Amino acid sequence: MRNLSIAVLSACCLFCALCSFAQTNRSSTKVPINEPDYNKPKLFADLPDQLEFNPVNLSNLFMLKVGQSVDVPISSDFNFSGQVVSKSDDPKSVSVVIRSTNRVGARLVFTKITDADNTIKYIGRIISLQHGDSYEIISVNNQYYLKKKGLYDLISE
Amino acid sequence: MKNLIRSSCLVGLLCTSALVATSQVPILESYPSATPTIYLDFDGQTVSGTSWNVSGPIYCGASGLSTAQMTEVFNRVSEDYRPFTVNITTDSTKYWSAPANKRMRVVITVTSDWYGSAGGVAFVNSFTWGDNTPCFVFSALLGYNTKNISEASSHEAGHTLGLRHQSVYNSSCVKTSEYNSGIGTGEISWAPIMGVGYSRNLTTWYNGPNSISCSTIQKDLDVITSAANGITYRSDFSSNAFNTAVNETFSNDQFTANSILVKNTYQNYFKITVPSLKLFQLSAVPFNVGSGNAGATLDL
């Protein structure tokens, strides 16, 4: 009886292994193709197309831990409140992701990149998949700006 | 002793289970000397600290493809990017050794619930961001179909290089479809890679109106080879001039020559001296992965 139990258990293990590996090459599967929704509501309609900001003032964001709440004073017109939800600590590329509580749906991603010649640059964006507008950090002559962009200028399926 | 045998059997079975459950990823490269790198990541990935992360890390499972399927996807995607100085690879070490702002990880994964229903998704121009933001191809939603997964991989990688969709407009300049789905049936059916080519055999880069407007003509080749991407056209192919064509060598009355037709305006020249006056047959075959010139990027 014991041997039988072991045999059944072994057979089950083998079956599970094969099932976990197996997949069907379903050529008839309907592939999801989505037409973009260019009529999504705007999240930043009250803000200008371009905001000047100083990334060095935001450097302390990289010290925050996941779960911490924070108010990010991006400009005099724009305070981004939220909670840290993710971080990346690659020595050459440090990132922090903050999910907004005052612009619901948006997350701010702020990244500090150290190039091979130790030059530092900042990149990032504020994006919400539920909304049609977003901001991207750009640099012009060493001055940083948040520039408004359409969602589909940033993301595409 | 009996218990030892039983335990050994169970451990053996569990080990077998683990091995079978994860297919071996073949280590492949399309152009090892190229610096810009597109890494096809089949074995799962944890994504953190990127614009994809809404609520913590994204734990992406492996692709669910067999080794043979991964190899076919690699071959199809490599063929799409063959004209360019970019290394398509399945080797993570090649990704990590490429400059951060000249590389892209294409995560081919069964895990899509964090995003929704789509074949894949990418950030436009993220190839040069330098912050390890990957793009995604959702293998389960694509039915584990190698053709579909390959099309989506080339397409999403194309977005990261700055390409938008090739779209369709009516005569009044009203967009009728975000995705140009091409024309034709069977072996010579065609669609732009940056449109939708799941049901077309032949897919190519294209000059056509993109998703911005009917008058915004996107030349895919120009975008891919932009200075920011650091990608150029390959030059290690056969002669493109009549007088510099290299003589091909016959062996058993046959010769084989391969080349890359880098651009639609380029020509390849081969020089042959027929050894004797006999019936002469010449076959020109595009690179393919199966019958009916499957996966071809060239219409011959």
Q: Distance between termini of chain A?
A: 56 Å
Class from secondary-structure proportions of chain B: alpha/beta
Measured by residues with Cβ under 8 Å of the partner chain's Cβ, the largest interface is: A-B, 51 and 55 residues
Order of helices and strands of chain B: HEEEHEHEEEHEEEEEEH
| Number of helices, where a helix is a run of at least 4 consecutive DSSP H or I residues of chain B | 5
What's the oligomerization state? Answer: heterodimer
Helix and strand content put the structural class of chain A at alpha+beta
Q: How do the strands of the widest beta sheet of chain B line up side by side?
A: 4-1-5-7-6
**Coarse morphology of chain B:** globular
The helicity of chain B comes to 10-25%
How are the strands ordered across the major sheet of chain A? 1-8-7-6-5-4-3-2
Number of β-strand runs of chain A: 9
Quick recap of the structure?
Chain A is α+β, with helices and mostly antiparallel strands. Helices cover 15% and strands 41% of the residues of chain A. Chain A has a domain at 50-154.
